[in-house]
């Protein structure tokens, strides 16, 4: 059943809204070609970078490390991978440029038109592990018309910590049920529901490549299940 | 001199962007008329409400009280004034409605067109003592096309505390000089400059009424001085 008093829609970003894998593979390949970095497997590099994502946040979730922005965690993983892939000759400014590739990820084709529709009826913003500047630069770059951007550095928590979901509801001054998380990841939605948020699912079957099979279908009865953001908008009566 | 590498413009809101006084006087008068509350001086009521603003934040700035959202401070002052003006018969829901009048303040006429221009070249957002939900609801209500909304509850500080200005630069991951505060209040700009931000001034001579004379001219050589937001946009080359 679609909750009829939802006031704000908040969105997972990496994978749900932007094609991090395709965007980074393209950026890194172009950079590598321009710099004559031959024989680097940029697809493997990209997948390894993303594979470092959850483990990098884990000490922070456990309280073993103070809150640290995702940009810094991305950079730590990047530095490790540059060594591992035997990439040489990169300056500090090159590394910063590559790291900010995460600020330039491209939205899936349905995202900008879907958001323009949803924005007419709902407050829209990200609920992401990205830091505010990353999410803001991404939206300016890709044309996502957010009403507000509160990154994980405003929430001081990484999903799926309850503090992330409840902190967002608190910033919005809304009861959690009036805030709907829209995500392509069942685990994220399960954690949101546990904190009392409404839930919307749409699959991104190609997030991990054409042959991936993670999260291609809902694993629970989420409040809304759509094929993409335009379909979610239609179901929410926009 | 206009700094040529400013990336983000952040704005004082109450007075600079929205006509809090005119908006509240109108709301309160209409509410009073509808409820048959005769003989209440709503102009005096509005001015008294605003007069409670700075004193309410002062214990928080001094560290004598934990951070408390502006909505709560507004409500505490409202409750006091309702007694003082001998207003009776208001329900909890009436009081909440009145308090949320601050979420419905109307922008001055140059603000929405000016922001649409500025948004094409700069990151734009509020830098206000308002809490996030107040600023967000105000922008949805009045059509201010913010890129991001980080209220004082995200900064955990009330201007003119340096933490407010520096916290914003930190969220944006920009050196303070690349962030320009635009405000109609010289004191706010002086504090921003002390923290290293760029500064833009435009007067709002009618903020406190037609015969007020606060802050009608710049008291220092701010980086940009304009007549209104359209003029600021023109001077910033948009």
In angstroms, what separates the terminal alpha carbons of chain A?
A: 16 Å
Assembly state of the chains shown: homodimer
SS content category of chain A: alpha/beta
- Tally of discrete structural domains of chain A: 2
The ordered H/E elements of chain A are: EHHHHHHEHHHEHEEH
Q: Report the portion of residues of chain A in β strands.
A: 5-15%
Based on Cα principal axes, name the global outline of chain A. Answer: globular
Radius of gyration of chain A: 18 Å
- Fraction in helix of chain A: 40-55%
Taking the sheet with the most strands of chain A, its summary is: 5 strands, parallel
CATH class of the largest domain in chain A: Alpha Beta
Number of strands of chain A: 5
User: What's the helix count of chain A?
Assistant: 11
- The CATH H-level homologous superfamily of the largest domain in chain A: HAD superfamily/HAD-like
Largest interface: A-B, 20 and 20 residues
Low-pLDDT regions of chain A = none
Main β-sheet, spatial strand arrangement of chain A: 2-1-3-4-5
What would the keywords be for this entry?
homodimer, 238 residues, alpha/beta, Rossmann fold, DNA polymerase, domain 1, 2 domains, five-stranded parallel beta sheet, 5 strands
Give an overview in words:
The structure is a homodimer of 238-residue chains. Chain A is of the alpha/beta class. Chain A folds into two domains: 8-19 and 105-235, HAD superfamily/HAD-like (Rossmann fold), CATH 3.40.50.1000; 20-103, Putative phosphatase, domain 2 (DNA polymerase, domain 1), CATH 1.10.150.240. Helix content of chain A is 45%, strand content 8%. Chain A is built from eleven helices and five strands, in the order βααααααβαααβαββα. The first copy, chain A, has helices at residues 20-34, 42-51, 53-61, 70-84, 92-99, 111-119, 132-142, 152-155, 162-172, 186-194, 229-235; strands spanning 8-11, 123-126, 179-183, 198-201, 224-225. A five-stranded parallel sheet of chain A has the order 2-1-3-4-5, with helices on both faces. In chain A, strand 3 (179-183), helix 10 and strand 4 form a beta-alpha-beta unit. In chain A, helix 1 packs across helix 2 (42-51) and helix 6 packs parallel to helix 11. The longest helix of chain A is centred in the N-terminal third of the chain and has 15 residues, at 20-34. Chain A is globular. Chain A starts with 7 loop residues before the first strand and ends with a helix. The A-B interface holds A 71, 123, 131-133, 136, 139-140, 146-151, 153-154, 171-174 and B 71, 123, 131-133, 136, 139-140, 146-151, 153-154, 171-174.
């Amino acid at each position: 059943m679609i909750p009829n008093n939802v006031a704000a829609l908040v969105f997972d970003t990496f994978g749900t809204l932007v094609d991090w894998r395709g965007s980074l593979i393209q950026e890194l390949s172009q950079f590598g070609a321009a710099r004559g970095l031959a024989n680097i497997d940029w697809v493997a590099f990209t997948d390894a970078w993303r594979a470092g994502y959850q483990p990098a946040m884990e000490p922070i979730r456990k309280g073993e490390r103070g809150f640290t922005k995702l940009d810094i965690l991305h950079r730590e993983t990047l530095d490790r991978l540059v060594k591992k892939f035997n990439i040489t000759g990169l300056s500090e400014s090159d590394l910063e440029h590559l790291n900010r590739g995460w600020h330039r990820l491209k939205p899936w084709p349905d995202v900008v038109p879907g958001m323009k529709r949803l924005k007419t009826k709902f407050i829209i913003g990200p609920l992401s592990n990205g830091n505010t500047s990353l999410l803001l630069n991404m939206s300016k770059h890709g044309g996502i018309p957010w009403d507000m951007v509160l990154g994980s550095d405003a929430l001081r928590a990484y999903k799926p910590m309850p503090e992330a979901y409840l902190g967002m509801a608190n910033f919005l001054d809304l009861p959690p049920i009036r805030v709907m998380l829209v995500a392509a990841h069942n685990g994220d939605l399960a954690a949101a529901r546990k904190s009392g948020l409404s839930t919307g699912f749409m699959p991104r079957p190609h997030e991990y490549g054409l042959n991936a099979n993670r999260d291609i279908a809902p694993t629970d009865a989420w409040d809304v299940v759509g094929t993409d953001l335009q379909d979610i908008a239609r179901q929410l009566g926009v």
